[in-house]
Prior knowledge:
This protein is α+β, with helices and mostly antiparallel strands. It has helices at 3-27, 30-37, 49-63, 72-85, 119-122; strands spanning 91-99, 102-111, 114-115, 126-132.
Amino acid sequence: MTPQTKRRVYLREATIALLLARLAVRFLPSARLLEWSARPVRNVHRFGTEDADWVVWAIDHAATKRGMNALCLPRALAAQAMLRHRGIASRLCLGIARNENQVSAHAWIEIGERKLTGGDEAGRFTPLAAFGGAKT
């Protein structure tokens, strides 16, 4: 598969995954979302780092498209779905941070100790819960 074709395939899948994740966050109860997120991967592919990088690129690129307005939780859910589809175990992490009189929340994806989505911003949040694959 050529790089251009690979980009198109990943972007198309990321756009669909983001749309479905946004709908799920809006209409499904959070318990059901987190239950889905905690499911184990069926066929584990331990050496999928290149695929993981492509997934992160596609999610970030699709989320910035006009009209998408995808926040951190739909991004994390979509990335986890794409990673699960490729057999890569990941964890959905939820955390909070306190700034003076405000509390903010954030969601990100981790594989082992590597933070895939949420990047530098995830470092300032205190993890509260993690759902999904075991540490690898």
